[in-house]
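pls ignore typos typing on phone
zinc ion + seq
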Amino acid sequence: MTTSIDTRTGGCLCGQVRYTVPRQPLATVICHCRHCQKQAGSALSVVAVFPRDQLHLTGSLSVYEDRGTSGQKVFRQFCGRCGSPLVTDTERAQEAGLIFIKAGSFDEVDDIQPTTHYWIASAQPWLPLPDGVELLQQE
Ligand SMILES: [Zn+2]
Ligand SMILES: [Zn+2]
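k done
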C-alpha cells in the first residue's frame, strides 16, 4: 500500500481490510441515528465523506443491507472477521459519486474535525454536544 502526505490509511481491527483515501475528506460528520448506534455498539458514528473513486480497499467486506428512515437502501459494510464497521454506501451516494467511511477506522484520528451532527433527536442523553457545530434534528 502506498502512503504519501496526500493520502490517509485505515482499516479494521484485525487488519484483514485496509484502505487508502485522500487525506482531506470532503466533509466529516457525526451521525446519532439509532441504526448507527446499533451498528457501532456505541453512542454515535463518525462519518467521513470521499469521492467514491478515490477509495482503494483491499480485503473483503461483508454487507448488511439496511434501510434508512427516508426509505433508501443503506449498505453497511464491515469486516466479516472482526466486525469493524468501515464503509457505508447508499443509493443517493452512488448517484452523487460519494462514499462514506467510518472515520474511527482511520489509522490517524487526531485531525478529525466533524462539522455537523445529524439525528441529534436520538443522541444519547449523557453525551454533551459541542458548540460551534451544526446540529440537525434529522439527516
Ligand atoms: Zn477485521
Ligand atoms: Zn446514522
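The mean pLDDT is 94. The longest strand covers residues 45-51. more later
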